[in-house]
Specification:
The complex is a heterodimer of chains A (433) and B (315).
Chain A lengths: L17 H6 L4 H9 L2 H11 L11 H6 L10 E6 L8 H8 L1 H15 L3 E6 L4 H16 L15 E6 L9 H8 L23 E5 H13 L1 H6 L1 E2 L2 E2 L1 E8 L5 E6 L4 H6 L13 E5 L8 E2 H5 L11 H4 L3 H4 L7 E6 L4 H15 L5 H18 L7 H12 L7 H23 L2 H5 L1
Chain B lengths: L1 E5 L2 E5 L5 H8 L25 E6 L12 E2 L9 E4 L4 H16 L15 H9 L16 E3 L3 E3 L9 H9 L7 E2 L6 E2 L14 H5 L5 E3 L12 E6 L8 E7 L2 E6 L14 H6 L7 E5 L10 H16 L1
Parallel strand pairs in B: 1-5
Antiparallel strand pairs in B: 1-2, 3-4, 3-5, 6-7, 7-10, 8-9, 11-12, 11-14, 12-13
Helix pairs in contact in B: 2-3
FE2/S2 (inorganic) cluster (FES) binds next to loops of chain B.
């Protein structure tokens, strides 16, 4: 059994209430942090822990926090990114739904560390019922003196709000999220300036993923150094994985980083193997945006090393033979899956979700969907596969925000590893030309 | 001050200058093409991606190259920075890609488009695009819309450069919102109609780099290259009164703001000057407007193409 720090109590009856959560050690990090530590010391612990952002990019959290500008007399904000819209990713929902106080506790401790007096949880529109759960938890925390004025008599004030979005994937991009939170159209901002300098309402802001903020709780409780002992190399701690697709036991699993991929898929503690006694064909290990890998490259790196569930190991080999840990949306495909059809679904998604600000993404995503649609419906042209390749290449790296890359990578990797499947769908008459 | 080298040419510029502005100071072909940047509009630029360049050296302090191509209109120079525009095959190819993206859904109905001849997209495609198109699907279409009684919106031709949105935002009052929907069905919104009661709404026509926003009072009156641009002014209480008149014979067919060599308006003009003063006698004529040589409406072209025709008409 691997160590669990985030959802170890998920099956405890009533854990969503403050009372039961407290009985299981809840809010200890708030007591410790606010009463015995300085904000700088908390940032230091988070740095020592080696925690990396769980929203997808894996940026070191302690470093991000230390970049936060602190001009005199200007408010600072902590914003929790609970937009969770990446296809294949549903771990934040699980955490918030089952143990809402874990996020509230993390928000209080983190806000204190950053000197924020007002903090927000921005949650996707489709999670409205989860927002209600969070609001109930926040109300309990106010009543118990963990939020509001003079928290636990320490003189620290914090207000925490839940803001429900309208259900746009792009509002998970941190600057689009801030625009949306300000009540504007959710268009990503052109950077610089970065949120650490000018974020919400132009004030210095940290945006962190739900799981990142929840991980601050065990880090403060056990100390950064202890936390850093869990995991492997620069991939410290535990990670929530949303496992879906053709496996026996889809669900949310907390793993210690460094767990072999093979064990994660086949052990009964986790995915329990491929369903219906079939073989695995491919897997997208980190949410729809990261490259798909065929089984051979998923289980072993190109150099023949066993692949591990860690930031470094999953990206070993670059995009040619590797992928990314991303948000931990682990999607498994069995041998009967048509990769081209799956790709068509993704191209539809990115086309639908593009905000439309910049030309390559606005126009390119729609074009890729049209071509993928034509291929899977048997009307593809011989030149279509190369054309798809060319379009994604011209989107990648040339857009305002990473959604352009997110739309390009699945196309590139599907063609890179499964070109023959696309070719098989092009009519023979076409190929003869 | 910061020293920056673009395509091998070095200039010294004040701190905070963008790569694009520095390149324009050098001038000529070194200046990347632009569609969405407009010098008189705050926060413009960054959207179209035609001005992308390669930063091969970040600065003297940190010589690392930038990992991706950057929008030159939104990237500030650093001392010792080295930039490649036309000298980078990567930039030339990526830009060709951007032009293709801008054109895949574009109607290219230039023969019936009032913008033809002064259209930035025509210039861009001609200079930086590829031949033909690889897009063989039906193009996206929208209904034509009136934005008040003087401006027409052909959304089909819009490249979503956000210039009109920023104009409405920054120089007109009463604007509600600029863009509806998202992705490739985004539309310049009808809410923008609320900006029409405003004295300065006509400037949205001038900032539109394509034929999406056109002057209804000029509609189908003439091809641009058959009109003669003349600088003129009048005493105006609302604006500077400095305009360009587009004349045909003794008639003023259209009044616009004066545009600089990059096609960007120099000073905003009010709707009174633009729509309600169309007699030559309303104006003090200063002389012919210089138009950049690359444009079809330049003096040269005008002399060569249009003058004989005019002589006949003028008699
Ligand atoms: C299109 C797009 C969608 C994103 N969606 C999410 C999301 O739903 N949740 C999230 O935490 N981060 C998302 N991100 C990443 C955020 O921009 C940001 O990096 C993250 O919230 C930072 O938190 P972290 O450092 O704790 O990971 C998205 C990024 C992009 C480009
Ligand atoms: S890359 Fe796509 S989603 Fe991001 S700003 Fe550009 S159009 Fe919008
Ligand atoms: S906007 Fe420009 S390219 Fe488009 S139809 Fe008009 S003149 Fe032609
Ligand atoms: S209508 Fe014209 S100015 Fe407005 S966004 Fe479209 S192209 Fe730009
Ligand atoms: S002009 Fe720079 S991005 Fe459009």
């Amino acid at each position: 059994m691997g160590k669990k720090l985030l959802i170890h109590n998920d099956k405890v009856p009533g854990i969503h209430t403050l009372e039961v959560y407290r009985q299981h050690g809840g809010y200890a990090s708030v007591e410790k942090a606010l009463k015995t530590m300085s904000p700088e010391a908390i940032v230091e612990e988070v740095k020592k822990s080696g925690l990396r952002g769980r929203g997808g990019a894996g940026f070191p959290t302690g470093m991000k926090w230390s970049f936060l500008a602190k001009p005199e007399g200007v408010a600072r904000y902590l914003v929790c990114n609970a937009d969770e819209s990446e296809p294949g990713t549903f771990k934040d929902r699980y955490l918030m739904e089952k143990i809402p106080h874990a996020l509230v506790e993390g928000m209080i401790t983190s806000s204190f560390a950053l000197g924020a007096k007002t903090s927000y949880i921005y949650i996707r529109g489709e999670y409205f019922y989860v927002a209600r759960i969070l609001e109930a938890a926040i109300a309990e925390a106010y009543a118990a003196g963990f939020l509001g004025k003079n928290i636990l008599g320490t003189g620290y004030d914090l207000d925490l709000y839940v803001q429900v979005g309208a259900g746009a994937y792009i509002c998970g991009e941190e600057t689009a999220l801030l625009e949306s939170l300000e009540g504007k159209r959710g268009n990503p901002r052109i950077k610089p300036p970065f949120p650490a300098i000018a974020g919400l309402y132009g004030c210095p802001t940290v945006v962190n993923n739900v799981e990142t903020i929840a991980a601050v709780v065990p880090i403060i409780n056990m100390g950064g150094e202890e936390y850093a002992k869990i995991g492997i190399g620069r991939s410290t701690g535990t990670k929530l994985i949303s496992a879906s697709g053709h496996i026996n036991k889809p669900g949310v699993y907390e793993i210690e980083l460094g767990l072999p991929v093979e064990e994660f898929i086949y052990s009964d503690e986790y995915c329990g193997g491929i369903w219906k006694n079939k073989k695995m064909k491919a897997c997208i290990p980190g949410g729809s945006s990261v490259p798909i890998l065929p089984t051979e490259l998923l289980l072993k790196t190109a150099a023949g090393e066993p692949r591990l569930m860690s930031y470094e190991s999953l990206s070993d080999g670059g995009f040619a033979t590797g992928s990314m840990l991303g948000s931990g949306g682990f999607i498994v495909f069995d041998e009967d899956t048509n990769i081209a059809e799956n790709l068509y679904t993704f191209t539809r998604f990115y086309h639908h979700e593009s905000c439309g600000q910049c030309s390559p993404c606005r126009e390119g995503t729609g074009w890729m969907e049209k071509i993928a649609h034509r291929i899977v419906h048997g009307h593809g042209k011989a030149s279509d596969i190369d054309l798809l390749w060319d379009i994604q290449k011209r989107i990648e790296g040339n857009t305002i925000c990473p959604l352009g890359d997110a739309a390009a990578w699945p196309v590139a990797s599907a063609i890179r590893h499964f070109r023959a499947e696309f070719e098989a769908m092009i009519p023979k008459t076409e190929l003869a030309h | 001050m910061a020293k920056v080298t673009i395509d091998g040419q070095t200039v010294e510029v004040p701190d905070g200058t963008t790569i694009l502005q520095a390149a324009r100071m050098i001038g000529g072909d070194v200046a990347p093409p632009t569609m969405c940047y407009h010098s008189k509009l705050k926060t413009s630029g960054g959207y179209c991606r035609t001005c992308i360049v390669k930063v091969s050296k970040g600065s003297d302090k940190d010589p690392r190259p930038m990992p991706k191509l950057v929008a030159s209109c939104r990237t500030t120079v650093m001392d010792g920075m080295e930039v490649q525009n036309n000298t980078s095959p990567e930039v030339v190819d990526a830009r060709k890609g951007v032009v293709e993206f801008l054109l895949i859904n574009h109607p290219l109905d230039c023969p019936v488009c009032d913008q033809a001849g002064e259209c930035h997209l025509q210039d861009l495609g001609y200079k930086n695009g590829g031949e033909g198109t690889r897009f063989d699907f039906e193009r996206r279409t929208f209904e034509r819309k009136d934005i008040g009684d003087k401006i027409q919106l052909h959304m089909n031709r819009c490249i979503l450069c956000y210039r009109c949105v920023k104009t409405a935002d920054q120089i007109c009052d009463g604007r509600v919102h600029g863009v509806m929907n998202r992705g490739d069905v985004s539309e310049i919104s009808t809410y923008i109609e609320k900006a029409i009661d405003n004295d300065f709404s006509g400037n949205m026509i001038d900032v539109c780099p394509v034929g999406a926003l056109t002057d209804k009072t000029f509609r189908f009156k003439s091809r641009v290259w058959f009109t003669k641009p003349m600088d003129a002014h009048r005493d105006c209480k609302k604006c500077s009164g400095k305009v360009t008149l587009w004349e045909k014979g003794d008639e003023v067919l259209r009044v616009t703001g004066r545009k600089d060599q990059w096609g960007e308006v120099e000073e905003w003009i009010c709707n009174d000057c633009r729509f309600d003063h169309k007699k030559i006698t309303d104006w003090v004529i200063e002389g012919p407007r210089k138009i950049d040589h690359k444009s079809v409406i330049s003096q040269n072209h005008y002399m060569k193409l249009a003058q004989p025709h005019y002589k006949k008409l003028d008699k």
